[in-house]
Design brief:
alpha+beta; Lambda Exonuclease, Chain A; binds iron/sulfur cluster; PD-(D/E)XK endonuclease-like domain-containing protein; DNA repair; DNA damage
Length: about 300
């Protein structure tokens, strides 16, 4: 068995596969760009905070609060003192404060979607304060209009709202994940659902496939559907059929990446994501090699 090596500061150095245990976002970084994983988890660089992260987290928190009410009460507005604006503000303020404390980066430095494109609205603090409550409310409206979908329950009757997984072995590494919702329809079909409040549409099904794999490992239930709910439009949920083979492929890809990381191989994947989703572009030599167009978008020139 490999023993952890001592680092210069005396701490035991963990293998990347051990670090993957910490969260699903670590695995997500790893799948999107192994170099991003190295920057965040190995080198422990500070990521430049983004308004969309604080806003998106607050939207998630409000919808979670709503869904827990919705299990027993028809409308959160019936709860004394509730307002969408007040609920969002409470979560958003807390998220901003915690992020500032954690990173030490002033809010004036935070990244905002659309900031480098004059034709679009800059999605800064004011944007999220104005729009965040409605994004959360859109989920509630969809729930009310789609009673054929209800929250799935675990065998111990825990409602699958922000359902936590803490797996020993997912493709060779431990994995901790939180699934926004697992829902079931009248036909008995099970779906894993991720709520998206950001402006960019998800381009990969990886996240949903990982969640489906978690459900199978933990509960022996393989969801046949996965969906990204667009909190901005709120009028549609994009359901994709999750192919059995694709879930298995995802686990195999995780396994391959883990082998590469433990061997110290971090392949960078420079591209569009450097500008829009990565807070490590200022530290990354691969990002320096982007074309001028993408370097401008990433705020590097
Ligand atoms: S800037 Fe791009 S290539 Fe560099 S770590 Fe981030 S996503 Fe990867």
């Amino acid at each position: 068995m490999d023993m952890p090596q001592a680092t210069s500061n005396g701490e035991a150095e963990q293998k990347p596969s051990a670090l993957l245990r910490t969260s699903h976002s670590a695995l997500s970084d790893f799948l999107s760009c192994p170099e991003k994983f190295r920057q965040s988890r190995i080198l422990k660089r500070k990521e430049t905070p983004a308004w969309w992260s604080a806003g998106g987290t607050a939207v998630h928190s409000v919808t979670e609060e709503f869904d827990r009410w919705y299990l027993t009460a028809p409308s959160p507005e019936a709860v004394e003192g509730f307002s969408w604006e007040g609920s969002f503000k409470g979560f958003f303020d807390r998220q901003v404060e915690e992020t500032q404390e954690k990173t030490g980066v002033a809010t004036s430095e935070w990244r905002a979607a659309g900031a480098s494109n004059a034709r679009r609205v800059t999605e800064d603090e004011a944007f999220w304060r104005a729009n965040g409550p409605q994004y959360a409310k859109n989920w509630a409206l969809w729930r009310a209009q789609n009673p054929q979908w209800s929250i799935w329950g675990t065998p111990s009757r825990e409602p699958a709202i922000e359902l936590e997984f803490n797996l020993e072995d997912f493709g060779g590494a431990g994995l901790r994940a939180y699934v926004d919702r697992v829902m079931v329809n009248e036909a008995g079909e099970v779906a894993v659902i991720d709520l998206k409040a950001g402006s960019s549409a998800p381009d990969l099904l990886d996240q949903l496939l990982i969640y489906a794999g978690c459900m199978e490992i933990e509960y022996g239930v393989r969801p046949t559907l996965g969906a990204f709910f667009n909190c901005r439009k709120g009028d549609k949920v994009y359901l994709e059929r999750l192919d059995v083979e694709h879930v298995t492929d995802t686990m195999e890809r995780v396994s391959t990446f883990i082998t590469q990381a433990d061997a110290g191989e971090y392949l960078a994947r420079p591209g569009e994501q450097c500008a829009f989703r990565c807070g490590y572009a200022a530290h990354c030599s691969s990002a320096q090699r982007l074309t001028s167009f993408w370097r401008k978008k990433a705020g590097l020139e």
